[in-house]
Amino acid sequence: MKSRELLVILGCGVLALIWLASRMRTPRNRVYDDTSGKVSNDDVRARGFKPATPVETEAEVLFYQDMNGYNTTRIPALVYHHDMFFAFAEGRRETFRDIGEMDIILRRGRRKDWKVEWGPVQIVARQSGYRLMDPVPIVDTEIDMILLVYNAHRSNVEIWDELADEILTTELKVIKSYDLGLTWTEPQDLNHAIQLIKPRASLYGPAPGHGIQMKSGRLIVSGRFWSKVTDSKQKGFKHGTFPQTNVIYSDDHGKTWHPGGRFGYREDTNGIAIFSDEATAVELDNELCINARTLHPDQPRLLAFSNDGGASFGTPRFARSLQEPGYKPRNDTSFASNHTNTLQGPFLLEDNTTRATFGGGCQGSTIGFTAPQPLSPSNTWVVFSNPASFTTRRNMAVKISKDGCRTWSKPWVIHANACAYSDLAYFETWDSNAGVYSPNIAILFEGGGEFRYESIQFKMFSLERMLQGITETSPFSSGSNFL
Q1: What global pTM score does this model have?
Q2: Which helix or strand (DSSP H or E) is residue 241 part of?
Q3: Do 18 and 111 belong to one domain?
Q4: Are residues 12 and 110 both part of a single domain?
Q5: Which ranges of the chain have pLDDT less than 70?
Q6: Which pLDDT belongs to residue 374?
Q7: Residue 416 is part of a domain; what is its CATH number?
Q8: Rounded distance, CA 143 to CA 213, Å?
Q9: Do 411 and 436 sit in the same domain of this protein?
Q10: What secondary structure does DSSP assign to 268-331, as a single string?
Q11: Cα distances (angstroms) measured from residue 278 to each of 114, 272, 294
Q12: What are the Cα distances from residue 121, in Å, to 62, 109, 184, 239, 383?
């Protein structure tokens, strides 16, 4: 071999080594998926998130009164999977009230960046002579399935009459979809799961709002059941029964279900019975948190934690910093004087004291996601939504907790008019400039002008926009969550 050819070969080899060494010195900050060309989720989570431009979309009406022949649509539930949103609701045929025949309906939305293309209304569950209520969707990522739990009540029997009968007539159902909500299986009866609840349930209702799949694969549906008061020292709420929050769970992808932990009967320091009701679940770093509505206007929301995947719960604690419709400390002059600008109505008396209003609380929603770097006291941040008002159901707002639901930020109000139930979903968008996925939240909520059930609306916003909104607005005070 000639010396010139040898030098060319050696030169090419040196250049190749230099190129390879430069690639090895370059930080491995991108791992590309061969099919999509995007950074893989595993790599993103290892590196954490970077701040992105605050983004917020206008609220979009998905369901409205008289839509598709329904008198009213209520009780939103939302999940996200494979770049698609699944927005569920009750289609109430006869009235906006909790009576008459109802269907579970769905709209599927394909997300393209910050736009969503929504499909038509689908009826996913209908049963003649029944009202189908409380939709609870869960995404099972292990088998790529969407599961939906819901309740079936006789259409012409009111809930309070069901309690008076003391006979469990509620039918709990589950259906499943393996093709992103296009088709659904026939309903499976889950009554065995609530028939095993102790003390015996006279009435049961799941969530409503999305359920969760824990890191272990366990599926969790939070809910509440009503039992007969058997101890003469205990107080009843209605027809001698009291409600309490609980969970049911499945470890085999929704084939079989079991009753989990419950809150139990308790009284506050004033001797008032604590009636816990509609609830939402979120998985934290090493525990499960249940956030529940209470039914007395002098009591705030209730939180309880589980260290065994929902099989049992520790003692529930009040979350006084989560503003709730109807909740105001009674005859608390310091509270009234500190909130003069936020309390507007006849309940603020001339002597700066407050009095209880009708109705206790409202349903709320929670969603958890991996905390951005650098990590806060908790690796999981949690967003909470509900009407942030001390009076009536107004001011749909979101709050964030960075320490495992122990304390909460001020609320960011996203809808200042009448509103009620809501549900949250988490999703990520690709930021090509930063080379990462960015965390975002979507909310599906009941709202209107003066009538809170006028429509069900959908809105998206980035984590940065929510944090920005929290600092920009709100006369509410923050502070310690547990008192």
Answers
A1: 0.83
A2: strand 241-250
A3: no
A4: no
A5: 1-52, 327-359, 373-375, 473-483
A6: 64
A7: 2.120.10.10
A8: 12
A9: yes
A10: -TTS-EE-EEEEEEEE-SSSEEEEEEESSTT--EEEEEESSTTS-----EEETTS--TT---TT
A11: 31, 19, 8
A12: 9, 11, 14, 38, 28
> Whose CA is closest to 292, among 381, 211, 241, 361?
361
| 419-443 tens-digit pLDDT | 999 999 999 998 777 777 889 999 9
d(CA 282, CA 455): 27
The reported pLDDT for the residue numbered 239 is: 85
* 161: Cβ contacts below 8 Å, ≥ 6 apart: none
Same domain, 224 and 256: yes
Name the nearest CA neighbour of 225 among 254, 189, 198, 258: 198
The string of DSSP codes covering 388-430 is --SSSSEEEEEEEESSTTSEE---EEEEEEEEEEEEEEEEEEE
**Closest of 187, 184, 158 to residue 171, by C-alpha:** 187
Please provide the size of the chain in residues: 483
Least Cα distance to 427 among 417, 438, 436, 416 occurs for 438
Residues 263 and 399 in one domain: yes
In a domain, 343, yes or no: no
Q: Distance between the two ends of the chain, CA-based, in angstroms? A: 87
The residue segments making up the domain with residue 16 are 1-30
CB 84 within 8 A of CB 425: no
- Please tell me the distance from the alpha carbon of residue 36 to that of residue 39, in angstroms, as a whole number: 9
pLDDT at residue number 50:
57
Residue type at 170 in one-letter notation: T
Residues 231 and 188 placed together within one structural domain of the fold: yes
Amino acid symbol at 342: T
Question: Cα angle at 414 between 302 and 316, to 5 degrees?
Answer: 5
**Structural domain total, the chain:** 2
Cα–Cα nearest to 313, from 227, 235, 220, 251: 220
Task: Assess whether 167 and 275 both reside in one domain.
Answer: yes
Q: 438-442 contacts: CB < 8 A, separation 24 or more? A: 438/49, 438/50, 438/52, 438/462, 438/463, 438/464, 439/49, 439/369, 439/370, 439/372, 439/463, 440/55, 441/367, 441/383, 441/398, 441/466, 442/78, 442/80, 442/85
> Within a domain: residue 190?
yes
Identity of the amino acid at 244:
Q
- Tell me how crowded residue 464 is: count the other CB atoms within 10 A of its CB: 19
pLDDT at residue 163, as a whole number: 83
Is 453 within the bounds of a domain?
A: yes
> Which tens digits make up the pLDDT trace of 296-315?
888 889 999 999 999 999 99
Q: List the alpha helices (DSSP H) in 188-259.
A: 191-195
Please say whether the beta carbons of 145 and 118 come within 8 A: no
User: Does residue 354 lie in a domain region?
Assistant: no
Q: Does residue 216 share a domain with residue 233?
A: yes
